[in-house]
Amino acid sequence: MSMAVASSLRSLARRRPRLRLPAAPLAVPGARAAFLSGAAEEAAADAAAPAAPPAPGRKVLESFREEFEIGGRTIAFETGKIARFANGSVVISMEDTHVLSTVAAAKSSEPVRDFLPLTVDYQEKQYAQGIIPTTYMRREGAPKERELLCGRIIDRPIRPLFPRGFYHEVQITVNVLSSDGKQDPDVMAANASSAALMLSDIPWNGPIGVIRVGRIDGNFILNPTVDELGLSDLNLVYACSRDKTLMIDVQAREITERDLQAGMKLAHSEAIKCIDPQIRLAKRAGKEKKEYKISLISDTSYEKIRTLSEAPIQEVFTDSSYGKFERGEALEKITQSVKAKLEEENDDDSLKFLSKAVDTVRKQVIRKRIIEEGLRVDGRQLDEVRPLYCESNTYPVLHGSALFSRGDTQVLCTVTLGAPGDAQRLDSLVGPPTKRFMLHYSFPPFSINEVAKRGGLNRREVGHGTLAEKALLAVLPPENDFPYTVRVNSEVMASDGSTSMASVCGGSMALMDAGIPVREHVAGVSVGLVSQVDPTTGDISNYRILTDILGLEDHLGDMDFKIAGTRKGITAIQLDIKPAGIPLDIICESLEPARKARNQILDRMDQEISTARAINDGSAPRLATLSFSSDALRKLLFHRKKIEQETGARVSVSDGTVTIVAKTQPIMDKAIEKVEFLVGREIEVGRTYKGTVSSIKEYGAFVEFNGGQQGLLHISELSHEPVAKISDVLTVGQVLSLMCIGQDVRGNIKLSLKATLPQPRKKKDLESNGPLPSQEVGWAAVENMPSLGAADAEPSSSKHEDGTTVEPPAFSTPSVIIRSAADCDAQDAATGPKKRAKVAKSSPRPYKAPHERQEVRTATAKKTPVATKKTKKVKIEDPESNSLETSGSEEVPEHTASNTEDLKQSPVNFRSGSMKLGDVVTAKVYQIRAFGLVLELSDGARGMHKFEVNGRKEFEVGQELLVKCSSFNAKGIPVFSLVD
């Protein structure tokens, strides 16, 4: 029985692995009891073991989504899925670009400052486009300029809509989650931030709609892609509420005011399509607005401060003799006197809001005076521009400089030119990778007589500099015409309103002073607004538009409307406002006074400098771009630093091109010489090269140039005058500037020194045999006459007696045969000293076809040795071609009477390269001169025949004559006499 029970328990244990039974010795007495007690312990342990954890439940993220369409593209707002702890969070999507915007407010119910501490942080991380940052730490660093600018685009339309007196800290953080590179995320981020504020419990008088408008071929495009913006002449970012404009940012290519108004009206009608989806989303998922404490002064305290300060403030504002700082000191004294009276009364509530209350009183006084009397603080008319001062070339040592003053605002602009490699690298998600034109705006504390620390990138400085950069970018020449990288530095020397527009004016003059071929000047002016609001309806009941506003008018007014452009149209706009929106009609009305003021400023700038200076006249750097093959660039990369150290120039290599930047032309020439000598360039006929004489022969010199290539400088190409011995003129190692004048049929290079020298005055002797008094008149143009061998002649093939056709060389200039230096040395060693002396008197060997050389060798072997005479060199110069010279160095048997007779019988088979005295040939009359004839030989070469005294005969052009070579003139042109 016990065995059966044990067996069944073991089988059960095998089926249930958790029950592990101990092996009990059953043969021992009492074994059954022991076994039963062990099973009980196992069962107790099994019951005490923890149960398996339950499977996690499925969490459901409730999200809300609203979709709408603008310009044929679907845009969606979504909330509830990401960043659920934020006070408000929205993801906006357009195609494959997704942007997250979150908003949070400080927990304290008491405001800690007397202004709205709104912070907008816009971030573009490289993961959004699938890229690891190239920085050392492989992390994104400090905010880039583009991120600061996008943050300003979000901040400017949102800030005016917070309630008056709301001074609690608010932070908006925007992250680009993914980017397809097609859409610029900045406009999407502004709409998402508006939707996040609507969902939050922060009091805010939104929502807003933001849209981008472009124009291609006169047609407006809504929310254009990045590629479309590259073709557009307008980039308009427009933000608005349902009935008012909140922000405008424009970059354009001289768009007219009328076209801009049409674009803004279209943008307003389309931007309000973003408003209703945000309202619907807030109703579905938004929070109830929280009650925050508003910091507002009581009416009693305000009236007390107004009574004490209004009269003295009005007295200061009516005195136009005050300057900026004198007026500021006077107003500060008024504030201190009011403070002293409040301290005597122990009115702590009024003291707490003293500065804000006094500022409000100032605002009301100045606005009332402008609207009711039409008078400004400095006594100007509403549309009057302050006095102007313009100066260019302020510091001649700089590449370009200009000083511009408008009233008390003064800006110094400088221009620095650099190589294409100096362009700024942009690690942004969209747009071009580099930027070759940069304008950096600097606002030092001394410009407003203050003490402050200088930090890193400042949002205001970046924004003002970018605005001026956009304004000037429209008139810059294309990169292909002007490959320099340009940096403009705008240093504010004194500030009293609209320093960014002063930077546009000063930068335009500095660009012209640097020699940059800008098409015309660009000027900018800031327009302000002072308005009265109906307290019952909130609408503007009365207003005045101010041209060229002061800093005080900017602070106490309603808007700062900066407009820059040329006489043709607008190039950049930036609108900042303080109230909760301005009607679009008033903004459009402001364009006309801005245009008139802009033209007045342009007239004054043109009086100072109206066209670009020559870039080489001043201290602007010289820039040269050379193209080389990939193999040649490798050699240059190895020696680039050495060339820079030796010359002082900057050499950059990229994309198959070499860019050299030098401060002066001599440095540039030296750098180009070293680069070309090291790398070499494609040889061009007519181009001048610098080379070094490597060896000297009796008939010329071999010159090493262009990266180690060799060419022959023949003795006849040394000077316009005959040279007897080349060693008297040249030495080994001498550096020369030589012109390539051609190439022979073997591919050897011909160089000329005299082609780089000025042409000497023509001699009166044409012949060496005797003087010809009127030779200069009669034969002055013989060398200038075209010949069949000139560069402009059509190439033609020649036929030998055996019918073999010889094609002319591929180059245009007929040339002599040039052997390499190694061939010449080998020939000198083979011929020995005696024959070397003969070669020393001869020119290089002319090219002959192989069958011709064989015929000469055969004839020489059969005939008895005869006296040899070297052929005279025949040279015909043509200034339109490089030079024409034909010479023979082959030793040819001297003609006897018999073979002269044969030549008379068959004078057509003639080659001018072997012309010598006594040769009789047939020639045609090419031209009849006053003192002789120009004759054309059968192979196209030219000669001359001089009339004897009182022996002129009648000749006709084209008439064939039998003539005999009687002499050669100093230039090697044959002189013929008639054969009876």
From TrEMBL:
Chain ranges of the S1 motif domain: 686-754
UniProt-listed InterPro entries: ExoRNase_PH_dom1 (IPR001247), ExoRNase_PH_dom2 (IPR015847), ExoRNase_PH_dom2_sf (IPR036345), NA-bd_OB-fold (IPR012340), PNPase (IPR012162), PNPase/RNase_PH_dom_sf (IPR027408), PNPase_PH_RNA-bd_bac/org-type (IPR015848), PNPase_PH_RNA-bd_sf (IPR036456)
Matching Pfam families: PNPase (PF03726), RNase_PH (PF01138), RNase_PH_C (PF03725), S1 (PF00575)
Entry's family note: Belongs to the polyribonucleotide nucleotidyltransferase family.
UniProt biased composition (Polar residues): 896-907
Listed transmembrane segments: none
HAMAP family found in the cross-reference section: PNPase
Extent of Low complexity compositional bias: 858-868
Ranges for region Disordered: 789-811, 825-907
Keywords of this entry: Nucleotidyltransferase, RNA-binding, Transferase
Enzyme Commission numbers on file: 2.7.7.8
GO molecular function: polyribonucleotide nucleotidyltransferase activity; RNA binding
Name of protein: polyribonucleotide nucleotidyltransferase
